[in-house]
Amino acid sequence: MSDSPLKPATEYNELEKQLNELLKRYQLLQTENQSLKIKQESLVKEKANLLAKSTLAKTKVEAMITRLKAMEESS
Fold first, then answer.
1. Residues 21, 37: Cα–Cα separation, whole Å
2. Using alpha carbons only, what angle is made at residue 36 by residues 24 and 19, rounded to the nearest 5 degrees?
């Protein structure tokens, strides 16, 4: 603690206060961490969904281009 001697009860109360503060911070960080994990999981799923949609759109566009080229060649 500090250089000045404190009464044991005062030291105990100070330690108890610090411990309670640490516990509050720990609980807050736990809650925040859980929230961030849920958000990350949601974003990973959203990214996978968007990648699938992008791949499907690319495939459709490529198919249209192929059909247009075929139509152009047959004309």
1. 24
2. 15
Q: Which amino acid is at 10?
A: T
Residue 3 φ/ψ, nearest 5 degrees: -70, -30
* 0.85 surpassed by pTM: no
User: What sign results for the dihedral spanned by CA atoms 66, 72, 73, 75?
Assistant: positive
How big is the chain by its Cα radius of gyration, in Å?
31
pLDDT digits (tens, 9 = 90+) for 5-18: 668 889 999 999 99
Non-local (6+) Cβ contacts of 18 within 8 A are none
